[in-house]
Amino acid sequence: MTRLLVEHLQKSFPAAGEPLHVLRDICMEVSGGQSLAIVGPSGSGKSTLLQILGTLDRPDGGTVKVDGEDPFLLDQQQVAHWRNQKVGFIFQDHHLLPHLSVMENVLIPTLAGGRANAPLIERAKELLQAVGLSDRVGHLPGMLSGGERERVAIARALLMSPSLILADEPTGNLDRRTAEAVTEVLQSLQRDNNAILICVTHSETLAAAMDQRHELLDGKLVRS
Ligand SMILES: Nc1ncnc2c1ncn2[C@@H]1O[C@H](COP(=O)(O)OP(=O)(O)OP(=O)(O)O)[C@@H](O)[C@H]1O
């Protein structure tokens, strides 16, 4: 089973005067099938933490291990491959490419390996069905509602069957009912895949739907 182990993670940013110590001592342990919400005040470092967990940024100290492997010890090419295989990102503004169809957007992760093979196309179809968008595969993102675009982003994030799903405010721009529907589909796919789901959010409803709730305060995570 997948296991994420984070120990004593630190991250600072240069600032006028003293450096800004955003993450001071982050420790966490999560297993496959579990979901976790990270809440905390604006500017407390939630997105920074998510970016580091997904290897989009580097920590200054501490370790991140997924299934015993520390991705920050890999070289640049290996880490890109690791990220593509292990991590699914979902962003609040979904980052869909406007000139590609729904199906093409879901298949974006295959571009890195140059292999949109038949099984992956089949999986994209299954995921679009699971998120309720089978009849929208040829649409452009601009033709979809906000909730539908978020569901395309979820399908895309799950295409490579990642063990780690990282979501930054996945329901931030959605009305309550749509947010609940998106949360439900995200969590059901996460459980089906036995993946770890980590959601950064200001939404208490989304946080309450996760198995654990952690608050980021003064650079540390406190289970709450
Ligand atoms: N690349 C950077 N360079 C300098 N400072 C940065 C950088 N990225 C983030 N910061 C600072 O680090 C702090 C934490 O930012 P972060 O985006 O992680 O917060 P957050 O908790 O996600 O906030 P919000 O809830 O408002 O999205 C902020 O004060 C921000 O200005």
TrEMBL record:
Q: What is the lineage of its organism?
A: Bacteria, Pseudomonadati, Planctomycetota, Planctomycetia, Pirellulales
Origin organism of this chain? Roseiconus lacunae
Q: Which domain of life is it from?
A: Bacteria
UniProt key word Transport:
yes
GO terms for molecular function, please? ATP binding
Q: Which family does it belong to?
A: Belongs to the ABC transporter superfamily.
Q: What is this protein called?
A: ABC transporter ATP-binding protein
ABC transporter domain span: 4-224
Q: Which SUPFAM superfamilies match?
A: P-loop containing nucleoside triphosphate hydrolases
Asked if the keyword Calcium belongs to this entry, the reply reads no
Give the UniProt keywords, A-Z.
ATP-binding, Nucleotide-binding, Transport
